[in-house]
Amino acid sequence: MHFLELPLVFFTVLAQCAVGGYLMVIAHLNSIPDGKQRRLVAVKTIFFVLAFMTIGFASSTMHLGSPLRAFNSLNRVGGSGLSNEILTGSIFFALTGCYWFTEVCHKSKQRFRSLLRYLAAIAGIIFMAAMVKVYLIETVPLWDNIFTPLDFIFTVMTAGVLFGSLLLNVFGGSNTNANKRMAAFGLLLIGLHFIVIIIRTISFSSIATSIHQATTNLQAYMPMIFIQCVLMLLAGWLWMRAINSEKKQVTMLLSLAFVAIFVAEIFGRGTFYGMHFTVGLL
Q: Transmembrane stretches, by residue range (predicted)?
Protein backbone atom coordinates (compact mmCIF):
# COMPACT_ATOMS: atom_id res chain seq x y z
CA MET A 1 0.00 0.00 0.00
CA HIS A 2 1.68 3.20 -1.17
CA PHE A 3 0.84 6.61 -2.62
CA LEU A 4 2.13 7.96 -5.91
CA GLU A 5 1.99 11.66 -6.85
CA LEU A 6 1.01 12.65 -3.30
CA PRO A 7 1.13 16.42 -4.05
CA LEU A 8 -1.38 15.92 -6.88
CA VAL A 9 -3.53 13.74 -4.64
CA PHE A 10 -3.86 16.58 -2.13
CA PHE A 11 -4.22 19.26 -4.80
CA THR A 12 -7.13 17.57 -6.57
CA VAL A 13 -8.99 16.55 -3.41
CA LEU A 14 -8.52 19.94 -1.70
CA ALA A 15 -9.58 21.84 -4.82
CA GLN A 16 -12.66 19.66 -5.28
CA CYS A 17 -13.60 20.10 -1.61
CA ALA A 18 -13.16 23.86 -1.99
CA VAL A 19 -15.36 24.10 -5.08
CA GLY A 20 -18.03 21.81 -3.63
CA GLY A 21 -17.98 23.65 -0.32
CA TYR A 22 -18.23 27.02 -2.06
CA LEU A 23 -21.20 25.90 -4.17
CA MET A 24 -22.96 24.58 -1.06
CA VAL A 25 -22.35 27.79 0.89
CA ILE A 26 -23.59 30.18 -1.79
CA ALA A 27 -26.61 27.97 -2.47
CA HIS A 28 -27.57 28.39 1.17
CA LEU A 29 -26.70 32.07 1.66
CA ASN A 30 -29.91 33.37 0.08
CA SER A 31 -31.95 31.43 2.63
CA ILE A 32 -30.45 33.51 5.46
CA PRO A 33 -32.94 36.40 5.87
CA ASP A 34 -30.79 38.73 7.97
CA GLY A 35 -28.34 40.63 5.75
CA LYS A 36 -25.74 41.15 8.47
CA GLN A 37 -25.73 37.48 9.45
CA ARG A 38 -25.55 36.47 5.78
CA ARG A 39 -22.47 38.64 5.28
CA LEU A 40 -20.75 37.28 8.40
CA VAL A 41 -21.45 33.69 7.37
CA ALA A 42 -20.07 34.39 3.89
CA VAL A 43 -16.90 36.00 5.27
CA LYS A 44 -16.14 33.18 7.71
CA THR A 45 -17.02 30.20 5.54
CA ILE A 46 -15.38 31.39 2.34
CA PHE A 47 -12.17 32.13 4.24
CA PHE A 48 -11.80 28.38 4.72
CA VAL A 49 -12.64 27.71 1.08
CA LEU A 50 -9.79 30.02 0.13
CA ALA A 51 -7.54 28.31 2.69
CA PHE A 52 -8.20 24.93 1.08
CA MET A 53 -7.41 26.34 -2.36
CA THR A 54 -4.21 27.94 -1.05
CA ILE A 55 -2.99 24.65 0.43
CA GLY A 56 -4.02 22.86 -2.75
CA PHE A 57 -2.05 25.22 -4.97
CA ALA A 58 0.95 24.90 -2.64
CA SER A 59 0.73 21.11 -3.05
CA SER A 60 0.60 21.39 -6.82
CA THR A 61 3.67 23.65 -6.73
CA MET A 62 5.54 20.87 -4.92
CA HIS A 63 4.70 18.60 -7.86
CA LEU A 64 5.85 21.15 -10.45
CA GLY A 65 9.04 21.94 -8.53
CA SER A 66 8.70 25.73 -8.36
CA PRO A 67 6.05 28.46 -8.79
CA LEU A 68 7.82 29.64 -11.95
CA ARG A 69 6.98 26.37 -13.69
CA ALA A 70 3.31 26.99 -12.95
CA PHE A 71 3.56 30.37 -14.68
CA ASN A 72 5.48 28.86 -17.59
CA SER A 73 2.77 26.25 -18.09
CA LEU A 74 0.31 29.06 -18.83
CA ASN A 75 2.09 29.57 -22.16
CA ARG A 76 0.03 26.71 -23.61
CA VAL A 77 -3.44 27.78 -22.53
CA GLY A 78 -5.98 26.30 -24.93
CA GLY A 79 -3.66 23.55 -26.15
CA SER A 80 -2.67 21.93 -22.87
CA GLY A 81 -5.02 20.42 -20.31
CA LEU A 82 -2.61 21.28 -17.48
CA SER A 83 -2.41 24.91 -18.59
CA ASN A 84 -6.20 25.14 -18.76
CA GLU A 85 -6.48 23.60 -15.29
CA ILE A 86 -4.05 26.09 -13.76
CA LEU A 87 -5.73 29.04 -15.49
CA THR A 88 -9.29 28.12 -14.56
CA GLY A 89 -8.23 27.27 -11.00
CA SER A 90 -6.52 30.64 -10.69
CA ILE A 91 -9.62 32.42 -12.01
CA PHE A 92 -11.83 30.61 -9.50
CA PHE A 93 -9.43 31.49 -6.69
CA ALA A 94 -9.22 35.14 -7.78
CA LEU A 95 -12.98 35.62 -8.17
CA THR A 96 -13.69 33.89 -4.86
CA GLY A 97 -11.05 36.04 -3.18
CA CYS A 98 -12.52 39.22 -4.69
CA TYR A 99 -16.02 38.26 -3.55
CA TRP A 100 -14.75 37.49 -0.05
CA PHE A 101 -12.91 40.82 0.08
CA THR A 102 -16.01 42.79 -0.93
CA GLU A 103 -17.98 41.07 1.83
CA VAL A 104 -15.23 41.84 4.36
CA CYS A 105 -15.08 45.52 3.38
CA HIS A 106 -18.85 45.78 2.93
CA LYS A 107 -18.47 48.80 0.68
CA SER A 108 -19.53 47.51 -2.73
CA LYS A 109 -23.17 47.36 -3.76
CA GLN A 110 -25.07 44.16 -3.07
CA ARG A 111 -25.68 43.63 -6.78
CA PHE A 112 -21.95 43.71 -7.51
CA ARG A 113 -21.19 41.32 -4.64
CA SER A 114 -23.86 38.92 -5.90
CA LEU A 115 -22.39 39.09 -9.40
CA LEU A 116 -18.94 38.16 -8.09
CA ARG A 117 -20.45 35.36 -6.00
CA TYR A 118 -22.09 33.69 -9.00
CA LEU A 119 -19.20 34.34 -11.38
CA ALA A 120 -16.93 32.52 -8.93
CA ALA A 121 -19.38 29.60 -8.86
CA ILE A 122 -19.35 29.36 -12.65
CA ALA A 123 -15.54 29.58 -12.64
CA GLY A 124 -15.43 26.75 -10.10
CA ILE A 125 -17.54 24.48 -12.29
CA ILE A 126 -15.35 25.26 -15.32
CA PHE A 127 -12.27 24.56 -13.18
CA MET A 128 -13.63 21.13 -12.27
CA ALA A 129 -14.34 20.36 -15.93
CA ALA A 130 -10.79 21.40 -16.86
CA MET A 131 -9.40 19.17 -14.11
CA VAL A 132 -11.28 16.15 -15.46
CA LYS A 133 -10.05 16.89 -18.97
CA VAL A 134 -6.40 16.67 -17.82
CA TYR A 135 -6.78 12.98 -17.02
CA LEU A 136 -8.78 11.79 -20.01
CA ILE A 137 -5.66 10.54 -21.79
CA GLU A 138 -6.16 8.03 -24.59
CA THR A 139 -2.92 6.20 -23.83
CA VAL A 140 -3.90 5.58 -20.17
CA PRO A 141 -6.77 3.05 -20.35
CA LEU A 142 -7.60 3.15 -16.64
CA TRP A 143 -8.08 6.93 -16.78
CA ASP A 144 -9.67 7.40 -20.20
CA ASN A 145 -13.17 6.24 -19.25
CA ILE A 146 -16.41 7.39 -17.65
CA PHE A 147 -15.17 6.55 -14.14
CA THR A 148 -12.67 9.43 -14.06
CA PRO A 149 -15.27 12.22 -14.35
CA LEU A 150 -17.63 10.28 -12.08
CA ASP A 151 -15.00 9.94 -9.34
CA PHE A 152 -14.06 13.62 -9.53
CA ILE A 153 -17.70 14.77 -9.55
CA PHE A 154 -18.55 12.54 -6.60
CA THR A 155 -15.69 14.08 -4.60
CA VAL A 156 -17.09 17.55 -5.28
CA MET A 157 -20.62 16.47 -4.42
CA THR A 158 -19.87 14.38 -1.31
CA ALA A 159 -16.74 15.72 0.40
CA GLY A 160 -17.51 19.22 -0.92
CA VAL A 161 -21.12 19.22 0.25
CA LEU A 162 -20.10 17.87 3.66
CA PHE A 163 -17.38 20.54 3.88
CA GLY A 164 -19.92 23.25 3.11
CA SER A 165 -22.42 21.81 5.58
CA LEU A 166 -19.76 21.73 8.29
CA LEU A 167 -18.76 25.36 7.68
CA LEU A 168 -22.38 26.53 7.70
CA ASN A 169 -23.02 24.77 11.01
CA VAL A 170 -19.83 26.01 12.65
CA PHE A 171 -20.59 29.64 11.78
CA GLY A 172 -24.34 29.65 12.42
CA GLY A 173 -25.50 29.61 8.83
CA SER A 174 -27.63 26.48 8.93
CA ASN A 175 -30.62 24.99 10.74
CA THR A 176 -32.16 21.58 11.38
CA ASN A 177 -34.23 21.47 8.19
CA ALA A 178 -31.31 22.59 6.02
CA ASN A 179 -29.07 20.00 7.68
CA LYS A 180 -31.57 17.26 6.89
CA ARG A 181 -31.79 18.31 3.23
CA MET A 182 -28.01 18.48 2.85
CA ALA A 183 -27.58 15.14 4.60
CA ALA A 184 -30.20 13.42 2.43
CA PHE A 185 -28.48 14.73 -0.69
CA GLY A 186 -25.01 13.83 0.53
CA LEU A 187 -25.92 10.35 1.80
CA LEU A 188 -27.58 9.51 -1.50
CA LEU A 189 -24.42 10.51 -3.37
CA ILE A 190 -22.16 8.59 -0.97
CA GLY A 191 -24.27 5.50 -1.67
CA LEU A 192 -24.05 6.05 -5.42
CA HIS A 193 -20.30 6.64 -5.19
CA PHE A 194 -19.91 3.39 -3.26
CA ILE A 195 -21.73 1.52 -6.05
CA VAL A 196 -19.60 3.21 -8.73
CA ILE A 197 -16.40 2.15 -6.92
CA ILE A 198 -17.55 -1.49 -6.98
CA ILE A 199 -18.52 -1.33 -10.68
CA ARG A 200 -15.23 0.41 -11.54
CA THR A 201 -13.17 -2.21 -9.72
CA ILE A 202 -14.95 -5.04 -11.52
CA SER A 203 -14.65 -3.25 -14.87
CA PHE A 204 -10.94 -2.54 -14.48
CA SER A 205 -10.12 -6.20 -13.84
CA SER A 206 -10.70 -6.95 -17.54
CA ILE A 207 -8.39 -4.21 -18.88
CA ALA A 208 -4.97 -5.24 -20.20
CA THR A 209 -2.34 -4.07 -22.68
CA SER A 210 0.51 -5.91 -24.37
CA ILE A 211 2.67 -5.81 -21.23
CA HIS A 212 0.36 -4.58 -18.43
CA GLN A 213 -2.62 -6.12 -16.69
CA ALA A 214 -4.94 -4.06 -14.52
CA THR A 215 -5.48 -7.02 -12.20
CA THR A 216 -1.86 -6.73 -11.05
CA ASN A 217 -2.38 -3.11 -10.04
CA LEU A 218 -5.75 -3.87 -8.50
CA GLN A 219 -4.27 -6.54 -6.25
CA ALA A 220 -1.69 -4.06 -5.00
CA TYR A 221 -4.28 -1.37 -4.32
CA MET A 222 -7.18 -3.45 -3.00
CA PRO A 223 -6.30 -2.58 0.64
CA MET A 224 -6.56 1.13 -0.22
CA ILE A 225 -9.88 0.60 -2.01
CA PHE A 226 -11.16 -1.32 1.02
CA ILE A 227 -10.08 1.46 3.40
CA GLN A 228 -11.76 4.05 1.17
CA CYS A 229 -15.05 2.13 1.22
CA VAL A 230 -14.96 1.64 5.00
CA LEU A 231 -14.26 5.33 5.61
CA MET A 232 -17.06 6.36 3.24
CA LEU A 233 -19.52 4.17 5.14
CA LEU A 234 -18.24 5.61 8.43
CA ALA A 235 -18.69 9.16 7.11
CA GLY A 236 -22.23 8.37 6.01
CA TRP A 237 -23.08 6.88 9.41
CA LEU A 238 -21.65 9.89 11.26
CA TRP A 239 -23.50 12.29 8.97
CA MET A 240 -26.76 10.45 9.61
CA ARG A 241 -26.08 10.54 13.35
CA ALA A 242 -25.42 14.27 13.15
CA ILE A 243 -28.87 15.18 11.82
CA ASN A 244 -30.53 13.17 14.60
CA SER A 245 -28.40 14.59 17.42
CA GLU A 246 -28.65 17.57 19.72
CA LYS A 247 -27.42 20.87 18.33
CA LYS A 248 -24.23 20.91 20.41
CA GLN A 249 -23.20 17.51 19.01
CA VAL A 250 -23.92 18.29 15.36
CA THR A 251 -20.67 20.18 14.72
CA MET A 252 -18.52 17.49 16.33
CA LEU A 253 -20.18 14.68 14.36
CA LEU A 254 -20.00 16.63 11.11
CA SER A 255 -16.30 17.33 11.76
CA LEU A 256 -15.62 13.62 12.25
CA ALA A 257 -17.67 12.78 9.17
CA PHE A 258 -15.71 15.26 7.07
CA VAL A 259 -12.37 13.91 8.29
CA ALA A 260 -13.53 10.40 7.37
CA ILE A 261 -14.74 11.34 3.89
CA PHE A 262 -11.65 13.49 3.24
CA VAL A 263 -9.27 10.67 4.16
CA ALA A 264 -11.41 8.27 2.10
CA GLU A 265 -10.99 10.54 -0.93
CA ILE A 266 -7.23 10.71 -0.32
CA PHE A 267 -7.06 6.91 -0.42
CA GLY A 268 -9.30 6.84 -3.49
CA ARG A 269 -7.20 9.41 -5.33
CA GLY A 270 -4.04 7.56 -4.31
CA THR A 271 -5.50 4.46 -5.95
CA PHE A 272 -6.37 6.51 -9.04
CA TYR A 273 -2.76 7.64 -9.56
CA GLY A 274 -1.39 4.23 -8.64
CA MET A 275 -3.49 2.55 -11.35
CA HIS A 276 -1.69 4.53 -14.06
CA PHE A 277 -0.15 2.59 -16.93
CA THR A 278 0.02 3.29 -20.66
CA VAL A 279 -0.78 1.26 -23.76
CA GLY A 280 2.86 1.53 -24.89
CA LEU A 281 5.99 -0.11 -23.53
CA LEU A 282 6.36 2.17 -20.48
A: 6-29, 41-62, 82-102, 114-132, 152-171, 183-208, 220-240, 252-272
